[in-house]
Fold these 3 entries.
Entry 1:
Amino acid sequence: MSSMSRRHLMFAATGIAAIAAAPRLVFAQAAAPAPAAAAPTGPFTLPPLAYPTNAFEPHIDAKTMEIHHDRHHAAYVTNMNNVAKTNPQLGTAKIEDVLGNLNALDDSIKFTVRNNLGGHANHTMFWEIMGPNGGKPEGEVLAAIDRDLGGLEKFQNDFNAAGGRQFGSGWVFVTVSKDGKLAIETRPNQDNPMMDGKRALMGNDVWEHAYYLNYQNRRADYLKAWWNTVNWAKIAERYAAAKAGTLGV
């Protein structure tokens, strides 16, 4: 065989190897996870976290916080901005007024607003009442817990039990009336006490996306650990606002 023929064979083999490798390279690139989509411009915005995503480790891991805030909550904001394009009144009304009057909405958007504006309201409250080094309940909040919920230990046990009993996805809340009375209530999916004319003092998310990376099916363990993330100073502010009639989301 001539040297020219051997060179041709070598080039051909090299070319075949490169072609064979190319699809694997394309597949590897395609399999990379896409970044979270940015919410479209509109009246609804994703509130930034007031703390780093790893602030609550080991109780809640940074990856769960990142996915929960940047993807799940962001999706509710995106969906509300999309529906507001053809229903601009949603972006100018107070969230509590919209959620408190869902039956006034057109049937074509009622389900979307219930789920996505409810999710936006719930999560906005959720990030607000959490914070590292959250302390302990004091003052009027502690007095209300003692008066209405049987003391801090009983309250936490009852709250955890209610969250554990919530079937499927949902939330466990502490509702607060205008006279400061507290009660433990649960809601399915992204329903919010505002839909019943009430206000949430605080609440915990028991959707699996809130805990599954660390806790899998051990919701009870997550509920217990979550108390390490509660910012009682912020809850005291919300309690004062509720008694003044100014508590919104």
Note: Residues 1-37 have pLDDT under 50 and may be disordered.
Entry 2:
Amino acid sequence: MEKTKKNKLMRIVVSIVAALAFWIYMEIQEPVDVTTEVRNIPVEFTGEDTTLADRGLMLLSGYDTTVDLELQGSRSVLWKLNKDEVRVVVNTAGITSPGTQKLRYTVDFPDEIPDNSISVKDASVWNVTVKVGELYTKEVPIEVDIRGSVPSGFFTENVIVDPVKLTLRAPREELLNVSHAKVVLNIGDATSTLIKTLEYTLYDYNDIPVHNDEIRASTKLIQVTLPIRTSKEVPLRVELVGAEQHSESVHVTIDPETVVIVGEVDVISGIHAITLDKIYVEDLFTGMNGPYSYTIKTPAGVSTQNGVKEAIVTVAVNGTTEGSVIVESINCEGVADGLRAHVEGSLEIALWGSEEAVETITPEQVLVRVDVSEVTEAGTYTLPAVITLQNTEGISVRGEYEVTVVVETRPVTLPEGETGAVAPIDPTL
């Protein structure tokens, strides 16, 4: 019994494989055409906005026509066909006069389908009936009906509509009573700019909706942008660099002290102050006051309220003086092995600060250092000097300095009575 079942199963499998092999052979050797249906294909019209419009004509009906097709071709080709990409196209270039006309259409298949590999066996209609009228155009404004309001602390700016006007096409008598188009924008609880793509409705001069299928428009959707802003008061500032030692001598006033900024909430929430300028204290001088005018610069998308665009800054420097000190001891740091370095001459350092500090400072309180670690061979070099004041208050160094450094090969000293031996280098030389 078990053996009989196995033999029966084997015969079924062999039959299926044989049938499949025969079908594949027939498809390759003698392909058999089969059919498939594609329904509700919308008709597309070409040349309406070019050739037909140039002749002063337009289509009044026929836009809603759909076609059902029965297609025939080999099974392998129809399997590849994407039915959504089958197009029915009517060329309007042959229309030369108004009236009702029947137009032939063509069927376009996707590019990957070989030419003439599919034919139309049957169709729900073979011609598309259209009504042609004389072209008349009219531009009407687009109004926005804004519904709702923004939360407290927010406000809206002028609404932006794209396009600003709507171009309509229809027989002249159909457009005479059309006054404007209108879209409805619901604000809801929005706290940031709204950008919506909306459908419009046509209205007559009595603000009554106009519904007319013979009226064609340049677009079906209108883009509406409603800027939603909030405001915030922030201080104006001037950044003083190096003011720690002279905080009592440098006084800055700004008029106005604060400004109200306007913008998107997510942008201005991160702005806590506006810096007008960066002033280096070492560049100031006694008696400096100004006033100096600065443009209030805001980030992109942020503006100032009430047209405030300028601030007046006054800098007062009081109780200070200028002086100098001459330093002869200059340290060379980072000298490479086998070399020695020294600075030729002295260096006059310009100082600025309180009168007492400037008058009492001594050269011993000024440390001048030169980094020669990048020098690897003897020669004369111009290098920057770093100035550090020690045990001083209310005083700072003006300017930047360079010194001339002479780098020499350090002599080698050999013990008495020895020749050719390499002696340790004396670092004090």
Note: The longest strand covers residues 33-46.
Entry 3:
Amino acid sequence: MIGRFVRPSKLRAAGILGMNARNVSLISVYNARKFYPRVDDKLKTKLLAEEAGIAVPELYGVVRSQGEVGGVYERVSKYPGFVIKPTHGSAGKGVLVITGQEDGEFRKPSGEVIGRKAMERHVSNTLSGLYSLGGKPDVAMIEALVQFSEDFRDYSFEGVPDIRVVVFRGVPIMAMMRLSTRASDGKANLHQGAVGVGLDLANGRALRAVQHGLPIESHPDSKNPFDELVVPRWTELLELSARCTDMTEMGYIGVDIVLDKTRGPLILEINARPGLAIQMASGAGLLPRVQWVQKSGCHAASVEERVATAMRVFSAEAGSLDNI
């Protein structure tokens, strides 16, 4: 198990992938710059996914100019819930989740209510680049609010939990679930206080959980323990993540997936620079898994074969990769 304060030598021995190694050996080698717009622009990602037949949340609309802001209320008034997000945002910044509305007032997952003017101001700020990478002018997307699976009702505070799968050369190598909390304002973002739960690649069962980098045994709000948490439709979910490599032509990505109670697994977004906190949540290092995929050549197999291999080789039960 990885603690919060560990000697560098122990981290290396545990196969922990550091930021420099990730940037130099993986991102710069396997993610061609010309393909970055496919993942950095969430609207392009969504359109590419739809073209490839990969399930995503429904797109309600796009706001491209300040002149369109005044018409946003009319566009969203017919939806009980929706999400507004910048197409070039990162780390959950600028994502406005609305779970209900009545008489021009909009309710957020935390229970906070904002008015029409505040909602329109958020869209205007999005367009001006307040939440985008580099502060450049942006575009606002309006998406359907995912109705998350009942399986997670006891493990998330108001917001929609998601699953992050790190995929290397089309092979899922590590996964975690991110669960929203009161502290994270109903958003599944670890930097804002969400819980990260490491998942066994063999079956989607919880291995361990962390919040703010520290191990926890139960959800901080619901108090439900994580030892019985299992993600359903696990193989289907991993296959969906593996297909994103073929879609983007990028070799090292983080795929964020939500489980809708009627539509099943949906791709939320794809990240070309996936964070490394997944190792803390999983209690394992990424480096040995990356090296195993490089040596095995399994990336050349079909999606189904790549996923079956990952579920077998990277399972918690398999343990060390040295003898595989």
Note: The chain has two domains: 8-54+149-313, 59-144.
